[in-house]
Write a structure and sequence with these properties.
Layout: H1 2-19, E1 30-31, H2 48-53, E2 56-57, E3 62-84, E4 97-98, E5 103-105, E6 108-124, E7 127-146, E8 152-173, E9 176-188, E10 196-210, E11 217-228, E12 232-235, H3 239-243, H4 247-261, H5 278-292, E13 299-307, E14 311-320, E15 325-334, E16 337-348
Antiparallel strand pairs: 1-2, 3-4, 3-6, 3-13, 3-16, 5-7, 6-7, 7-8, 8-9, 9-10, 10-11, 11-14, 12-13, 14-15, 15-16
Length: 350
């Protein structure tokens, strides 16, 4: 179970950033100074003929996209709590003990690459819906300390897939367009027994830069993105396997534990082993066994997990070669968070 919950967090926290980089179509939605001529030729969007008659330059209604994303960002694991109880005890009856100073997590980071594909359609002149699928791979580095030890760093591989739905709304504001999107994605990998729901929302302000050639232009934008992730996880087995703790780290931890229990060094709170009460010793012994992977299945624990920064700033650039082909990139950033997307889009009408 612990591997399930940590895999859920690690996979989702790395993939959810990608969802904010779904293709932006809003910069192709802008009022044309010349009135359109003729009848609107496509089945979508609904009311497209009305917008067309009013002079709006509509993009082709259907799109296919392929892209890649690189992401690096910090993660926080905190408020680790543990209890010892019968394996069949209901969750509501468990009484957890705070392990601050006993088992603490330090700075952690994920680095991933992803390849995703997406299809979308404008169902209304200023509203598009899309579906997408992607695969992700990379690695996660976690740091942790046990009873005052130096921080250990472990690295685990990330590999999985995700799929989801996206809504994109557009508001023309004179020379610029406001784009608002909301995504639901479901992430899964071999360590998850069911898909995990993640939500991402974003706002972008977009400005087109026209060229002399018809349907060829550049666009630039700036915006902000928010990512939502459930924060509480729990489990009761094999924390060492989920964290990817190496045998070398376990050997170093054994040396530290031997010094600590022999009263040669204090724990993270400045206490020596001989200063502890019996319940305190049992709790610390259980935490040590948990990290070593030798804890019994009557040891339960839970912790909070979140992205270090849930918001990020966005800067983007698009080049539309003609009415069918677009190429775009977007950079997201905020302190330790960095994201880079490159995507190609092909649009068509039916």
């Amino acid at each position: 179970m612990v591997r399930h919950y940590l895999a859920r967090f690690f996979s989702v926290s790395m993939v959810l950033v990608c969802l904010g980089f779904l293709p932006r179509l809003s910069f192709a939605q802008e009022t044309d100074s010349l009135k359109s001529k003729g009848k609107y030729p496509y089945i979508l969007p609904f009311l497209g003929d009305k917008a067309y008659e009013r002079g709006y330059e509509l993009p082709l209604p259907f799109g296919l996209n392929v892209g890649t994303v690189f992401n690096r960002q910090g993660l926080l694991l905190e408020d680790f709590e543990m209890t010892i109880s019968d394996p069949n005890t209901p969750e509501s009856d468990l009484v957890y003990r705070d392990l601050s100073g006993i088992l603490d997590f330090g700075p952690s980071e994920g680095r991933i690459n992803t390849l995703n594909m997406r299809g979308d359609a404008f169902i209304l002149p200023f509203l598009a819906v899309g579906g997408y699928y992607g695969r992700v791979w990379g690695e996660q580095t976690i740091s942790f300390s046990v009873v005052g030890s130096d921080y250990f760093r472990s690295t685990t591989d990330i590999k999985g897939q995700y799929y989801g739905l996206n809504l994109l709304g557009l508001v023309p504001l004179g020379p610029v367009v406001l784009s608002a999107d909301y995504s639901w994605s479901w992430t899964t990998n071999k360590n998850l027994d069911k898909p995990v729901l993640v939500k991402v929302s974003g706002l972008r302000l977009i400005r087109r830069i026209l060229t002399k050639k018809q349907n060829r232009y550049f666009a630039v934008w700036a915006g902000v993105q928010f990512q939502n992730l459930d924060s509480r996880s729990s489990g009761n087995i094999r924390l060492d396997e989920a964290l990817g703790i190496s045998e070398e780290d376990k050997s170093r931890l054994d040396d530290h534990w031997e010094q600590y229990t022999n009263n040669e060094i204090p724990n993270g709170k400045g206490e020596y082993w001989s200063d502890l009460s019996l319940p305190q010793r049992l709790a610390q012994q259980a935490a040590y066994d948990l990290v070593k992977g030798v804890a019994d299945d009557n040891v339960f624990y839970k912790f909070d997990k979140r992205l270090e920064y849930e918001y990020s700033m966005l800067l983007g650039l698009n080049y539309q070669h003609d009415a069918r082909w677009q190429f775009r990139s977007e950079y997201g950033f905020l302190k330790t968070k960095q994201q880079l997307m490159v995507m190609a889009t092909y649009r068509f009408g039916l």
